[in-house]
Specification:
8 helices; P-loop containing nucleoside triphosphate hydrolase protein; globular; two-stranded antiparallel sheet; P-loop_NTPase; about 260 residues; single chain; alpha/beta; Rossmann fold
């Protein structure tokens, strides 16, 4: 994985050098559940910040030029799911494209696409609180100095379903897609569900993966737009989220997006 990350970091860095100061470089990393897109996006963002600090010796080590932005916060709330015509299915399928607030996500992308100027204020995106099992509004700050936005989520290169997904994807500078063998994804998801307590055992974890996660994965694959990068995810130590301190636990059985 490290070789792939280094190549993508360098590619992004080179594009950043050519970007005008008034523009953010926006990259969306997508893939099916269990593909490792969260791990990849977080590592690229972290290494970009390391590179920026290394090339600007006077800066503090915590200075960030890249912001890692998961779309977890755009899950519909449990109350919104309960208000749907079929609340049982809505809760059971939490994590499917229709259980996200696509219009709100598009609105964030439009804000980030506005030119950066001295008057530009910090923009806030929602996060997801696993304790309360719902999004937290305006919890992730995106400062004016955040010139590279590394977004990650299942549906960031989706051209089908709600039109907002496609419109948001077309506003990105690059779309990256993490491909993974379905059996590898199934094993990762099964383990994730058991470790998080969503499933009591491996059989339940596999059932959850097959009946929700990989059903969503099929939609993601079939509706995928043309992307700039396809990254192969394999079962090696580089794809372990724990290395970046990434919380793998999800609410109600929904996969990390």
């Amino acid at each position: 994985m490290e070789e792939q990350v280094e190549r993508l970091v360098q590619k992004t860095w080179d594009k950043f050098q050519d970007a005008p100061a008034s523009k953010r470089l926006m990259i969306a990393v997508s893939g099916i559940p269990g593909s490792g897109k969260t791990t990849l996006a977080a590592k690229v963002a972290s290494k970009l910040n390391e590179k920026y600090c290394a090339t600007h010796p006077g800066l503090q080590s915590y200075t960030s030029i890249a912001t890692f932005l998961p779309m977890d916060g755009y899950h519909l709330t449990r109350a919104q799911l309960s208000a749907m015509p079929d609340p049982h299915t809505a809760h059971a399928r939490r994590g499917a494209a229709f259980t996200f607030d696509a219009p709100a996500f598009l609105e964030l992308v439009k804000k980030l696409r506005q030119p950066i100027c001295p008057e530009t204020c910090t923009i806030y995106a929602p996060s997801f609180d696993h304790a309360v099992k719902d999004p937290v509004a305006e919890d992730i700050p995106i400062a004016r100095t955040a010139r590279i936005i590394m977004m990650e989520g299942n549906y960031l290169s989706l051209g089908s379903g709600a039109p907002e997904w496609k419109e948001a994807a077309e506003m990105m500078d690059e779309l990256w897609f993490v491909e993974v063998d379905e059996d590898v994804a199934r094993q990762r998801l099964m383990k994730r569900h058991v470790e998080s307590g969503i499933a009591a055992n491996e059989d339940e974890g596999k059932k959850r993966a097959d009946e929700n996660d990989l059903v969503n994965g099929k939609e993601i694959m079939e509706g995928r737009l043309e992307v700039h990068e396809v990254i192969q995810s394999r079962e090696d130590s580089g794809w372990k989220p724990e290395e970046q301190g990434i919380d793998r636990e999800r609410d109600g059985g929904t996969p990390r997006v």
